[in-house]
Design a protein that fits this description.
By secondary structure, the protein is of the alpha/beta class. It is about 45% helix and about 20% strand. It contains ten helices and eleven strands. Helix 3 runs parallel beside helix 4. This is Molybdate ABC transporter substrate-binding protein.
């Protein structure tokens, strides 16, 4: 009888322990399944590729929502310095990322060089301009040249580098129209609002309304590197690290390469 009672007690204890374990597992599963929204600040030139990468990532992490804010790297960097709530920053230049690093706003363990790109000179697809080189923008037939604002748009700074390399910058100052980001410059060329523009090769690749007339030599400008990092103040640091790591995964690299970037 005593053995029977002991058996009953053991069974009850086992049932209680099993139930508690099940509840704990359920709680952990629920916790893991909690939805997370990540704010990503990314260079405007990444817009097309990031749309595809976003779709890929959401298939892997369906409980994560990505709110992607595109703009010039300098402006995005300034926003983060001013306290904007951002989880991951993907810049089109090391300069703007270094500014945040020096201000101790990055999780330095997540900082990595992600991509490379090229600078090209473009004209509207139906343009009759005969220029084939950056130095030829001094030609009188070229009235307006679109570039990004050099202080905030990396592509604009690269453009200045290239024109300086060819010793024509002083001669074309009055022709230059400055855009808020590289996508605006692309739009100006597409619509014929400027005669030529300087953008990344990846921007030209996704447009059927422009044609490339010249590619800048690598030694004519600073190296074009896109770094990425998690912002130290992120309230979702683990999820942010997961997305930041995904950007350098084979799947993401394949998308970037498809859009003309060089995976580093």
């Amino acid at each position: 009888m005593k053995l029977f009672k002991k058996g009953i007690i053991l069974l009850v204890l086992f049932a209680i322990a099993f139930a508690m374990t099940g509840c704990q597992a359920k709680e952990e599963t629920t916790a893991k399944a909690e939805p997370v929204t990540l704010t990503i600040s990314a260079a405007a030139s990444l817009k097309d590729a990031m749309a595809e990468i976003q779709a890929l990532y959401l298939k892997e992490e369906p409980n994560t929502t990505l709110a992607i804010n595109f703009g010039s790297s300098g402006s995005l960097s300034q926003q983060i310095q001013q306290g904007a709530e951002v989880d991951v920053f993907v810049s089109a230049s090391t300069k703007d990322m270094t500014t945040l690093k020096d201000a101790e706003l990055l999780d330095n363990t997540t900082l990595k060089n992600l991509l490379g790109n090229e600078v090209v000179l473009i004209v509207p697809k139906d343009s009759t301009a005969t220029i084939t080189d950056f130095s030829q923008v001094v030609d009188p037939t070229i009235a307006k040249i679109g570039i990004g604002e050099p202080t905030t748009v990396p592509a604009g700074q690269y453009a200045v580098d290239v024109f300086t390399f060819y010793n024509v910058m002083d001669q074309i100052t009055d022709k230059i129209v400055y855009g808020k980001d590289v996508k605006e410059v692309l739009t100006w060329v597409e619509t014929g609002n400027v005669d030529v523009g300087v953008v990344y090769s990846t921007d030209a690749k996704v447009s059927d309304a422009v044609k490339v007339v010249a590619t800048a030599p690598a030694d004519s400008h600073k190296p074009i590197i896109y770094p990425t990092a998690v912002i130290k103040a992120s309230k979702n640091s683990e999820a942010a690290k997961s997305f930041n790591d995904f950007l350098s995964s084979d799947a993401a690299k394949a998308v970037f390469v498809k859009y003309g970037f060089t995976a580093l």
